[in-house]
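quick one, 259 residues, struct below
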Amino acid sequence: MKKLIIYFSVAITMLLLLLGSSRLHPYYHLAKKQVMTGNELAGSTSDTLKIAIIGDSWAAYHHDYDKKLESILYDKGLSAHVVSIGNVGAKSKEIYQRLYSTTKSVLLERPDYCLISAGINDAVAKMGKDYYVHHYMLILRQLIELGIKPVVLEMPEVNYRAIANREPWTMRMRHILSSLMTGSELYGFNSYKTALVSTIKKADMQNRILYISADSWNPEGYDDSRGLYLPDDTHLNAKGYEVFDSCIAAAILKDIGIK
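---
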């Protein structure tokens, strides 16, 4: 009898978690397209290259290294102004919606490039590749419509298993159920990355964006590059951002024709 009660309790708990995942949390619903016109942007007469970095915690924590990226570019003969604004835990939908709220002031300054850090939190929460690609493409299209060149920062390798182990068991169970619902990997992101690249190609956007692969700055992958990460196995340390920014600078310099 006790076993029956336990099995019944587990079944009810899983059902409630499933319902909570799909109904109670609005971030599972796709965002609708919003509009910001180029008429809202500030005029630009400066010779200084403007770079915005938006997205999740990788963008938020980059704020402390904005001057370092400016310095790297300056050493190559390019004057630049870098502004990073991000939100810890933000998924692709929130990042898109913030284009019209907290991130809007940065975009209104008419940056030449806008780097997008998004996807880790989608993958952790098992939102699914369709959810991720839908909102990422909305971000890309809005930036292009504003005359800002998007820079896609490919989802980096992090220790997804370590992230999951830090979560309470209820959250772990919800993410397992979400994985079943969306067909997502439990501890990875390859389907997200592949789906985004495929959609960008289908939309014929390759020549309108800049794509920086994770391999270009971290070819050895997470397991062999732990010296670039903080102890949380998720975020870059100072050395990691130095390597990361050097790659970003090289990609932008190449794009504008400076060797």
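The beta strands are 49-55, 80-86, 113-117, 149-153, 210-212.
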